[in-house]
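Title: Comparing notes on inverse folding

I've been comparing how different people in this forum approach sequence design from structure. To keep things fair, I'm posting one structure and asking everyone to reply with a full sequence. Here's the target:
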């Protein structure tokens, strides 16, 4: 794998070139053939890099984010089978549950460094120091209270949030128990850790960005396999057959999907309305069909979200009809209009409004619904449109864009296809990318050419 600086230099070279030449070639286009092009680490081999990235995040990133959020201390308290959503992003592997009741305490010291303590019946080990271990739950709560009082923090972050699910992991029962054991003067110091949790989820490190192209490449590689004659026999294979190929292929690779893949088809004579949110149906795949899939996996703690298009050649055809090529090119233009509007500090709603303005000027019929990526597929961060709401999104849409954050550049365009008697086709695209503070860089390239089934 190339080093992160090398990957960044290559991506920057792509982006500084013309985004749209007269031949409709687009920056960062990349065709993949198979997931076999990429190494997949065994579960055992994944532990070391995952734990190394975790240690780097805890030592280098978390102190910065806590300072940014104005927190002196952060508590993550959860129970087995009712884990806080942020818990698994904070603990070393292999970890399968918050055994019994697990308490994590992060405290900023005067020199800016961070204490990382576990108050837990079963010590976690490095990078955590065990402040208490034992078996009595009442003693465990008293030990947590003692550690808090010992440090006398002014602002103590706890995971309660009205609007962000990943930041609302402290259960009501545990919250009440925390209030019972804390001295009265400490209770007003408890504040929502919402901003910290969101920033922890969305911020990517250099080490993660070195690995992320491999993760996305695997997802795109399986799509390339699925959209090929290796899997599809026109007139025989169904869209559901392709769905199951994708699912089973990821299982073979020991790569968990975070949602069930989908596959749909569009064809001449099957109407796609201008006001339909989504066009497509299921069934037997025929020659002349346009296919679409939506796939998401997680690997090395990083998640992907990808949508691509394929075409099944008719007998006598050697290439995709010109109208379909032009429609995909319009989809790529829409991607460029969207990504050109990314600015550090601009809110998701502002990016969406600017994209709508640019698309209207270009006369592109589009729908934009882009979201953050990272430890989860639908990650916290700025919402840039929703498929069912192309106007402002309250709260999530007001979150600003930060540098070094990852996104699923997701949406669709509709365009007339002359070869289909001027019927509309919907080009649904989604590619995993990151924003370095100046430009959006696709993590494993993007689709600029149709997958072909012959």
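Reply #1:
Here's my take.
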């Amino acid at each position: 794998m190339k080093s992160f600086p090398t990957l960044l230099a290559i991506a920057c070279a792509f982006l500084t070139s013309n985004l749209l030449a007269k031949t409709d070639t687009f920056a960062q286009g990349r065709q993949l053939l198979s997931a076999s092009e990429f190494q997949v680490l065994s579960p055992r081999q994944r532990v070391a890099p995952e734990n190394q990235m975790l240690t780097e995040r805890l030592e280098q990133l978390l102190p910065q984010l806590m300072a940014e959020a104005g927190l002196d201390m952060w508590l993550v308290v959860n129970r087995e089978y009712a884990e806080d959503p942020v818990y698994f992003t904070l603990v070393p592997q292999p970890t399968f549950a918050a055994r019994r009741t697990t308490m994590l305490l992060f405290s900023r010291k005067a020199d800016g460094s961070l204490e990382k303590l576990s108050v837990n019946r079963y010590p976690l080990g490095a990078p955590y120091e065990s402040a208490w271990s034992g078996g009595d739950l009442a003693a465990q709560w008293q030990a947590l209270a003692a550690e808090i009082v010992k440090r006398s923090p002014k602002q103590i972050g706890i995971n309660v949030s009205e609007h962000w699910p990943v930041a609302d992991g402290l259960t009501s029962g545990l919250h009440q128990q925390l209030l019972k054991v804390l001295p009265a003067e400490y209770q007003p110091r408890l504040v929502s850790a919402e901003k910290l949790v969101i920033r922890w989820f969305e911020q990517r490190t250099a080490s993660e960005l070195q690995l992320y192209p491999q993760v996305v490449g695997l997802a795109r590689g399986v799509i390339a396999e699925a959209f090929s004659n290796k899997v599809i026999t026109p007139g025989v294979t169904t869209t559901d057959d392709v769905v199951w190929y994708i699912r089973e292929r990821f299982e073979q690779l020991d790569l968990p999907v975070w949602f069930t893949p989908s596959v749909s088809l569009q064809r001449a004579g099957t109407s796609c309305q201008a006001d339909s949110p989504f066009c497509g149906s299921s069934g037997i795949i025929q020659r002349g069909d346009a296919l679409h899939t939506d796939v998401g996996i997680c690997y090395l703690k990083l998640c992907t979200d990808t949508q691509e298009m394929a075409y099944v050649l008719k007998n006598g055809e050697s290439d995709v009809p010109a109208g379909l090529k032009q429609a995909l090119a319009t989809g790529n233009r829409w991607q460029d209009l969207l990504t050109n509007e990314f600015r550090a500090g601009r809110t998701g709603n502002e990016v969406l409004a600017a994209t709508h303005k640019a698309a209207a000027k270009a006369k592109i019929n589009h729908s934009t619904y882009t979201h953050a990526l990272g430890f989860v597929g639908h990650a916290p961060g700025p919402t840039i449109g929703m498929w069912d709401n192309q106007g402002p999104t309250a709260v999530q849409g007001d979150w600003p864009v930060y540098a070094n954050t990852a996104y699923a550049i997701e949406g669709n365009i509709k365009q007339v296809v002359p070869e289909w008697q001027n019927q509309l086709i919907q080009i649904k695209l989604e590619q995993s990318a990151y924003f370095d503070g100046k430009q959006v860089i696709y993590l494993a390239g993007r689709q600029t050419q149709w997958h072909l089934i012959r």
